[in-house]
Write a structure and sequence with these properties.
Keywords: Receptor. The chain is α/β, with parallel strands linked by helices. It contains twelve helices and eleven strands. It folds into two domains: about 160 residues, 3-Layer(aba) Sandwich (D-Maltodextrin-Binding Protein, domain 2), CATH 3.40.190.150; about 120 residues, Periplasmic binding protein-like II (D-Maltodextrin-Binding Protein, domain 2, 3-Layer(aba) Sandwich). The protein has a six-stranded mixed sheet with strand order 2-1-3-10-4-11, sandwiched between helices.
């Protein structure tokens, strides 16, 4: 059967298109490999959703110099505090998913905010890719050094006799500090007034200044003030004593059986970031956490280094997210 000129030209164009598509498809694995090996080509911004000097900020600044060295590009910290870390988390959730804008997240931004705020503006699981855990650690119950409260039981006795008479500061609604106090009140049948801040430094300043009665604070933030004699530590929320605060007993052992709270910190990328990039970033963050000097510094701050990354971090996050949901429900803590 003969074909006319039009049919021949059409066949020729189709054949050329087929060849082009075959070449493009064949090059995709090479392009993906090239992307992962060449990344990063410019500085990376790590968004810390709290004020400078807070717990997340302190650990981010410990990690960033070594991470920059390993990646061969600067990693720049940018603080975007506000609304229990939601301002910074929202910013990263909406960022271009190219690996150049990351979140220094924690229990609050990527777990509890979802349950304690009616609209956080992002989903802590669906809108992020977990890269690497950094650490885990308890909170510590602290009061001013001139406070009349010498023990945890002193605080409980006061709250039993005068419900709602004391206030406490936290890094915001849904923060580990806030939830530590909520669970404490639930287990002791007491009530206190909540005063939220943008970060731990503000809480510490007003606690020392006498504007607050007490606070549940992460150990890296509270420890310097405890050691300098400006704050008194009454107890920790861990199962056992921690080396960073020798002699400070677990609250569960001395006053409130069953009271235990643990927070965590880690790095995230926006959802949609290429797998090759997230895998590389997760491994590099984990390598930094495994550095002996970094681990020693974390332990001195009362933290447990944890370098689970990528899929292992994802599994941890999903379990933690579910655990907090149950805790919030059991303690009857209402979203605001």
């Amino acid at each position: 059967m003969k074909i006319n000129d039009f049919q021949y030209r059409l066949w020729k164009k189709s054949f050329r298109l087929f060849n082009i598509l075959t070449c493009v498809i064949g090059l995709l694995p090479i392009a993906a490999y090239s992307q992962s090996t060449s990344f990063p080509q410019k500085p990376i911004t790590l968004i810390v959703p709290y004020t400078a000097g807070g717990g997340v900020d302190s650990i981010a600044r410990l990690i960033v110099p070594l991470l920059s060295e390993r990646l061969g590009q600067r990693v720049v910290i940018e603080n975007k505090p506000g609304v229990s870390g939601m301002v910074g988390a929202q910013y990263v959730a909406k960022a271009n998913p190219d690996g150049y804008t990351l979140l220094a997240g924690n229990t609050t931004t990527n777990a509890t905010n979802y349950y304690l705020t009616k609209s956080s503006g992002y989903h802590p699981i669906k809108d992020f890719v977990p890269l690497s855990l950094w650490d885990r650690g308890p909170t510590v119950l602290v009061v001013p050094m001139n406070s009349r409260f010498q023990t945890v039981n002193d605080v409980i006795k006061e709250l039993k006799s005068k419900p709602g008479s004391l206030n406490y500061g936290s890094s915001g609604l849904g923060s580990a500090h806030h939830l530590s106090a909520e669970v404490f009140m639930h287990l002791t049948g007491t009530s206190m007034q909540h005063v939220p801040y943008k970060g731990g430094p503000g809480v510490m300043a007003d606690l020392i200044g006498g504007q607050l009665d007490l606070a549940f604070e992460v150990v890296p933030v509270a420890s310097p003030f405890i050691k300098s004699g400006r704050l008194r530590a009454l107890g920790v929320s861990s199962k056992a004593e921690i080396p960073a605060l020798p002699g400070v007993k677990p609250i569960a052992d001395i006053a409130v059986p069953g009271f235990q709270m643990e927070t965590w910190q880690g790095a995230f990328a926006p959802a949609g970031t290429p797998l090759e990039i997230t895998e590389k970033l997760g491994k590099e963050f984990a390598a930094v956490i495994q550095n002996p000097q970094v681990q020693q510094k974390m332990q001195e701050l009362g933290l447990i280094p944890d370098y689970r990354h990528n899929n292992e971090f994802k599994e941890f996050l999903q379990a933690d997210f579910a655990m907090w949901g149950k805790l919030v429900k059991d303690a009857n803590i209402k979203a605001e």
